[in-house]
Amino acid sequence: MTQKPAAFVAIILGCAVVLALAPLILPPFYVRVGQLMLYSAGLAVAWTILGGFAGYASFGHAAFIGVGAFAAGLVEERLTGLPPALLLPIGMLVGGLACAILSAAVAYPILRLRGTFFAIAMLGVCHVCAELNNNIDVLQGSLGLNFPAVAPAAWDPAVFFYELYLAAGVVVFLIAWQIQRSRFGAGLLSIREDEDTARMLGVPTERYKRIAFVASAVLTGLLGVIYAHSLGYITTDSVYRDDTNLSLIVYSLLGGMGTLFGPVIGAFMLVFITQVVLARLLDFHLFATGLLLVLLVLAAPGGVLGLVKSWKLRRRAAATAPAE
Amino acid sequence: MNLIIQTLADGLVLGGIYALAAVGFSLIFGVLHVINLSHGILVLLGAYLALILSTTLRIDPLLTMPAVMAVLFVVGYAYQRLLIQRAVDRSPLGSMLLTFGVALMLQNTMIWVFSPDMKSITPGYALASFKLGAISFDAVRVSCLLASLVMLCCLAALLKFSALGRVIRATAQQTLAARLCGVNVRHVYALTFAVSAAFAGASGIVIGIILPFSPADEGTWTLNAFVVVVLGGVGSPAGALIGGLLLGIVSTLTAQYIGPSFPNVTMFLLLVLLLLVRPQGLLGNAFAPSR
């Protein structure tokens, strides 16, 4: 798979085309579920650049969704004269830039922490951003922000955002894939496996961690900008969400931590389970998520891809055993 | 001048309670190296148990402490043996997520059982207060602070002088060496967890008397415990006390002089500042496992 990059890209783009045509036959409810699946998968892959590849599991990536969305919204609000087709790219530029600045600023103290300390410190970053956003009047966090309708008049907005999420998701996925197969990606992997040894062997761990952190934050912020536009109106509570923080970890855990396809599989599965299977059991949501988490940690710490891998190994062992 | 002294006094009272609420978290982290994200749930469980006991038996809520602690001791022991033990040797993230899953399930259960509304425990002397010079103290807050300090001293004595404490400290220092000397490490882990849960329950009673509580608060108490432990240092009641008092004073000072809507911001800035200046915590070695 990784030996033939051209074939890999062709397969991914082929899948993307199939997914892009799906809204033609899907009923509206499933177009919305599809939106959420693609958005979550994009976020999960952006998260995994830092959390999966480098092993720095962040528990506060919703901070970048919120900062990106609010930065974009505040700027777009002052540019109402421009055509809507221009507003979204400007918003994404501003949102991405804001996330880049924020992540570069917090990277220095935060990335000195490891493991669970890093995870919880990121949760702190998220809460602080939410609190500042909510309490500083200029930022309109508690009042809420309106976003202009950017979908072309001829398109159903639901389908438009579906395609937008798909395009963004594919871009994020291909970026993550390029990172994974580069020297930089190998460096991140060595940081995950043993940071001190990697540093001793000459891997510029500090710089690599910081780049991965900023890249992950910017991609998350861009998706946050699209998300805010698809909602049309946001407050602090609708973007700085703790369940997003948690879900991003669960996607990777469910699919397979540290892999490229794992987060995508995990996001698709979890969104399907919560939106379709458990749709009628709202009171039960917290409980079900908690139970899923407990079962995952106890029974399948490698996620779906981990289960597939161990199943393959076992089958190979069974196939070779009689021959000996 | 009086205002600042009054604020500091309030901060000390609050800090003593933060310290008691965090000491169990600190102990689990020091001995098992597990971040127990269900700690806040155990605190709330203590508060709800005390509420039920004190209203049905019509006794002072602080007197329910032995019963609440006994119940939570058993719960903590079983919780560790049945669930945590299975994840304790895996990655730290695994055990953290496990406890988070349990926290979500129990929070949902608490909402079903106790309703999502705010509750509070009101003892008979709720409105009594006395003055010391120009500073006024509520009888409730003072008795709660005293109870917290007494409990912290008890735990410190338990860890320092008893055979159980010696075994717990040995396991925390070097698990392998303790095992070689014949310590049943699983049992010690479970006992540590049970002691932590019991102290979380005791702090729940005190919190329930001073502040209103609801199932949604569990995250706050877990996060507070984490901050206290990072500030003070892992694994010792003294570290929890220092961290708790510091956090209490900082949060009352910001509420008084900056505004009540920024509790997390100052708490977090303090944390970052400390990480840059003294990453091992004020006492002890908060970041040894994180490096």
From TrEMBL, chain A:
Transmembrane parts of this sequence: 6-26, 33-50, 56-75, 87-111, 157-179, 211-236, 248-278, 284-308
PANTHER family on file: HIGH-AFFINITY BRANCHED-CHAIN AMINO ACID TRANSPORT PROTEIN BRAE, HIGH-AFFINITY BRANCHED-CHAIN AMINO ACID TRANSPORT SYSTEM PERMEASE
Domain of life: Bacteria
One Pfam family per UniProt: BPD_transp_2
InterPro entries: ABC_transp_permease, LivM-like
Keywords on record: Cell membrane, Membrane, Transmembrane, Transmembrane helix
Protein name: Branched-chain amino acid ABC transporter permease
Keyword Transmembrane recorded: yes
GO cellular component: plasma membrane
GO MF term list: branched-chain amino acid transmembrane transporter activity
Bilayer disposition of the protein: Multi-pass membrane protein
Subcellular location: Cell membrane
Transmembrane helix recorded as keyword: yes
From TrEMBL, chain B:
Principal cellular location given in the protein's record: membrane
GO-annotated cellular components: plasma membrane
Cell location: Cell membrane
Membrane topology according to the record: Multi-pass membrane protein
Lineage top rank: taxon: Bacteria
TM annotation in the entry: 12-34, 41-59, 65-84, 96-115, 135-159, 188-213, 225-250, 257-277
Keyword line: Amino-acid transport, Cell membrane, Membrane, Transmembrane, Transmembrane helix, Transport
A GO biological-process term: amino acid transport
One function term, GO molecular function aspect: transmembrane transporter activity
PANTHER family: AMINO ACID ABC TRANSPORTER PERMEASE PROTEIN, BRANCHED-CHAIN AMINO ACID TRANSPORT SYSTEM PERMEASE PROTEIN LIVH
Family stated for the protein in its record: Belongs to the binding-protein-dependent transport system permease family. LivHM subfamily.
Name of the protein: Branched-chain amino acid ABC transporter permease
Source lineage: Bacteria, Pseudomonadati, Pseudomonadota, Alphaproteobacteria, Hyphomicrobiales
